[in-house]
Each structure stands twice: as structure tokens, then as C-alpha cells.
Amino acid sequence: MNIRKKIIASGVILLSIAVSNANAKVTAEEAAKLGGELTPMGAEKAGNASGTIPEWTGGIQKIPAGYQNDGVYINPFPDDKPLFTITKANMGEHADKLTEGQKAMLNKYADYKIPVYQSRRTALYPQKVYDAAKKNATATELISNGNGLANFEEATPFPIPKNGLEVIWNHIVRYRGGSLARTIGQATPMPNGDFSVVKFKDELTWLSTLTDAKEANDDNVLFYFKQVIVAPSRLAGNVLLVHETIDQVKEPRRAWVYNAGQRRVRRAPQVAYDGPGTASDGLRTSDNFDMYNGAPDRYNWKLVDKKEMYIPYNSYKLLSKDYKYEDVIKAGHINQDLTRYELHRVWVVEATLKEGERHIYAKRVFYIDEDSWGASEIDHYDGRGELWRVAEAHNFVFYDQKIPWYALEVLYDLQSARYLAFGLVNEANAPYDFNYERSLRDFTPAALRRSGSR
């Protein structure tokens, strides 16, 4: 795939002196650290002083023996055992490395635990992404009051970030492969553990990888996304189509839905911000998808710190065919025996709702992995300032594609004692496919009816 340079402009934009200074490009001298003392993506290459975080040596380079190149990712570390397990009884010993959300889960559920394993810095990307990130370091700027990007190639825009908004943009536009089709499940169990699975067929294609990308001529689009509900029968055939714009203040996300029962296509402006997530039973907002997505304009973003924290990592057990969905989904939370947490450095960013703006989350606290730029933990607070929802991304790496992503996204609702788990693949055959091509024609509103035919 050729990474295509995209310049997103909004006409004549006047930025305040404060914003301009905050979003200044880094110097060539600073950018030269990438691939040296910093990894090509901007993380600290060295391990920590105690040795509990190792040096980054290029990520996971060896594909495990037994992998069949079939989209079924086996565990490359099957012999690893937990170093220790954090429970409510001993959480005080580890409090400085736990999020408030993790502490709340330990306090709420007597059987909740955090198994901590050896830290393995497996995250890596293709060389073309590293090359683009280095170019972006001295070229990409925030425009439109931080709501858009200028001089941006499809990779990490700010590998050496200077503020919280730049860190969030690194998460929003991070590389996730050129094209991907996946068949995955979503569960929203009741407090007693009863659940059913909604099955989706997702397609994600970046603008630059369309077979007719030049004809698309749409520089404000990052990628195209289509989601078809496969089961249960009452929802099957419903389709969501999204053209993900970058500057969503200049041009809101283009979204359409096809209702199989009505056989109608209609615009879907509610697929943004705190609009309800698809088939989520009210447990997820639209911008909870992929941990966080969309326009950042409703929040003030503060870069709090960089810290060592226990986050889900190398979560290959959650993908295993050795388990059924019922082995993963349990009452109150997923089966923590199948999880793996490791000590990693994360960027901590606090988002507070701007005065006059509306959103059901008044504050969010993000913990973003330095190696992949993916959000790994997010704590969500309501308008009263109380912790409401806790999001966890159980990270893994598509080692044959060199793409870090999520094995499972989980969003816990502390008030209702329910949760949403998205990304289940244990019972799916060949759940991931990076070897397909799509044209712009496949992502038009007219194509929705074809996708949703039962």
C-alpha cells in the first residue's frame, strides 16, 4: 500500500497565538530521535530502571509456529504464567499503577482480579508507517482550533506530542491496516450473566487503499466503514455505513443506516458523540467505539503525565478457539482468568467537557499505550463527577500484518452492573481478513441494500 499524503484544509483559518504555540511542529533535531533513543513511533526505547519494563527491540518479529495464516491468531507466549495477581485484598500495594476504574472494579466484584504477567513490548508497525510518522513529526499541524490536521500522512501525526490533543489525535488516526474485514460478536450480559451475541460483519478500508482512490478525490476522509448485522434474525440485514471525515467540525461524519425491515436507507447524524451505539442496549455511545473515535471538539484536553501502569496486553487467550463465548462472558465482568495485564508506560490525558457543550460524559481520563498509541483504559465520569463507566482494551498484535489492535473491547457500567464486550471471535471461522479489495462503489448509500440482503 502506498501511503497517500493528505492535506486537510478549512479555507483561511485563524488560530490564536496560544493554540499555534501549543501545536508547533517539532524540530528536525527532535525528530532525529525517532528510531534512536525513541522508537520510530515516539515511545521511549529504553526500559525502566527496575527492569520491569524491557527495552523495545522492534516488537514481535517471529510468527509463532502453528499459525496457519488463516486469521486465527494463536498465543505466541503459551508458557507464560502470572507473576502475581492483584485482588481487592492487595490492591493497596499496587495502587500507584492502577487506574481509578480498575480500583472500582476490584472493589465492586469480589471475584474480580488482575493477573500481571511479564511485560513484552510486542507492538510494531510496517516500515512505511515509521517513515510516515517521521515525516509527520516535522510537518503535521493541528488546524481549525485543533479539529483537523494539515500536512498529514496516514500514520501517527504527532510521534513526539506536546499536548493532550496531539496524543488523542495519535489514537484517533493510528494505523490499523489498509483494508480489513472481520466477523465478530458483541454481548451485553444481564447482571446475572445471561447473554446473547449480536454478530457483525465489519469492513474497514482506508481512503488510500481503495482501488479507485484517485477517483474518490476526498481529502477530508480518513477511511470508509461498513457494518452489517448478521445475527440475531430480528436485527439481521441492518447496515451502518460511515465515511469517517477527519475535520468533523468542518464536515460532520457522513453516516447512513439501512433498515432491513423497512428496506430504507436514511442519513444517520446520531452516529456521533453520545448517540447510542449499534445494538448496545444503551451501554455504549457512538464515540465509545474503538475506545474513542470522532471529533474532539466538545472537550478540553489536558496532558497529565506519562506513567507506568498495568494495562491489558498480549491478550491472545481471549481470541482462543479453546474457549466458547460462554467461557469469556461472565456475570459482572469478563472471565479475568483469560486476561493478561502487563506493566507499560502510558500517556495520561484528561478530557473535560467544555462549557456550553453537551455530552453524557462530563470527564474522561485516557491511558494510551506509548508503543501503539491505542487507548488501553478510559475512565468515564458523569455530570455529578462520579465514576460511571470503565473501558478496557485488551491489546494484541496481528503479528503477520504488523498491526497492534484490540482482541476485545469491554465497557463496564458501574451503576447498572452490566457491561458490553465487543470483538468476540472464539466461535468465528477465519474472523479476520486483510486480503480483500474495495472500491468507492462499495461504500455508497446505494450499496447498503446489497449488503443488507438476507
UniProtKB/TrEMBL annotation:
InterPro entries: DUF1329 (IPR010752). Coiled coil: none annotated. CDD domains: LolA_like. It comes from the Bacteria. Pfam families: DUF1329. Residues 1-24 form the signal peptide. Keywords: Signal. This is Outer membrane lipoprotein-sorting protein. It comes from Oleiphilus messinensis.
